[in-house]
Amino acid sequence: MDSPPDSRLFAMCLLSALTAFVVWVLFGSAYNGGVILFIAIAVFAVLMFIDGYRQTA
Known about the structure:
This protein is mainly alpha-helical. The chain is built from 2 helices and no strands. The model has no long low-confidence stretch (mean pLDDT 87).
């Protein structure tokens, strides 16, 4: 299994962090830090899955 290049991995991490930040800004008082972390991890996992799917297709 190949790992993604550093630039692509950094872009996926940045996108997941920005998504979690936007959710926190929009719904900050409704969600605590654990839920925001879960959202960031879920977005990162989806991005990794999509990247892996694109690499094998």
